Input
Amino acid sequence: MSLTQLSKLIKYFLSGLGFIVLLTDTTQAYLDPGTGSYLFQLIIASMLGGLFALKTWWRSVKSFFQRHRRDKKIGLITEKDDAQKNE
Output
């Protein structure tokens, strides 16, 4: 499934869900205080997970450039090699 197909599927699903919610007259539901606590926990966990993923990605980008600079400094990459890569 391609990304565009997935985004269309999500868009249709959310549109349908919103349509159902708007057409509902009354709801027979009870939200206890534990529900709010659970939602708060989900939000915090999502934020921390996103920060961890960002930190991991940033470390890989940083180590790539540090490795390239180190190789260039000790002579593993010459100016000629570097110029050929940029062409």
